[in-house]
Write a structure and sequence with these properties.
Layout (H helix, E strand, L loop, with lengths): L1 E6 L3 E7 L8 E6 L3 H12 L8 E6 L2 H13 L3
Parallel strand pairs: 1-4
Antiparallel strand pairs: 1-2, 2-3
Amino acid sequence: MLLAIDIGNTTVAAGIYPGAASEPRAMARSRAGDLDSLLGALGGAARLNPAEVRAVSLGSVAPRVTAMVRGWLKDRGF
């Protein structure tokens, strides 16, 4: 499963893709500082389990937010 995260200046969007060339299983969007609710929404919608995520893709235009997201993901076992 792929967790794709798009980091903007004010919002972060994420989607879960179960396989290559597939439609997202779940998508969510939140403000940049509210990562817990973003991944919580994905987890609730798609039963997101860090052990099932084989890759994380980050696209970003905001280096500070990227560092925050990377630390958040690492702390939660992604």
